[in-house]
Amino acid sequence: MIAILKKEIHTFFASPIGYLVIGVFLILNGLFLFLFKGEFNLLDNGVASLSSFFQLAPWVFIFLVPAISMRSFSDEMKQGTLELLLTKPILPLGIVMGKFLGVFFLVLLALVPSLLYVFTIYTLGTPQGNIDLGVTFGSYFGLCFLIMAYTSIGVFASSLTNNQIVAFLLSVFVCFFMYFGFEGIATVPTLNELVNWERFGIAAHFKSMGRGVIDTRDLVYFVSVSGFFIALTTRKINTH
Known about the structure:
Order of helices and strands: HHHHHHHHHHHHH
Strand content: under 5%
């Protein structure tokens, strides 16, 4: 599993695409948060808060995570190396976890430079340091779990096809539905009377963690979603 994890990281940074994906993520955030006028601009809000970043990040990750994960198994199937990988003395679950952790680590690496936003808002606040660090780092903690769920979905989508573009689009759709779809269903009164659909969506649990209170129900939700898609991926690889 460790060997696969290292291979994923090495392959990602061996081509300009890896740096391009992370660069695009940081540039997009920088443009929306500091240059473009609008509701996401941190300097125009007049409040020492990163709430705009945490509203924007789930949208950006809906595209960033699939862009990184789309090649996980699609590339192996296209090149015919998946069969060779399955002959190695490692369980299919170990292969899946190696791919999953590789993508997860890479996305977290893209998130690390955004900590500069915390320093910026902390410094510019009046008085200096006028920022709720509990809420801020609670939201970062929630982002890590959101990334974990998106990554499991992306790796699963990649195991379904040898076409990276198809894997990307499928992953974007499922991530979008998991984040926003259940909130949409919850707005239909007749459906929401029977079941509180909103609690099945990622958005409700991410926002809950963003309040700075870590609830075990939110942790269990993210671990369950990730485990579910990892199990589906393992089953798919087993039948290859």
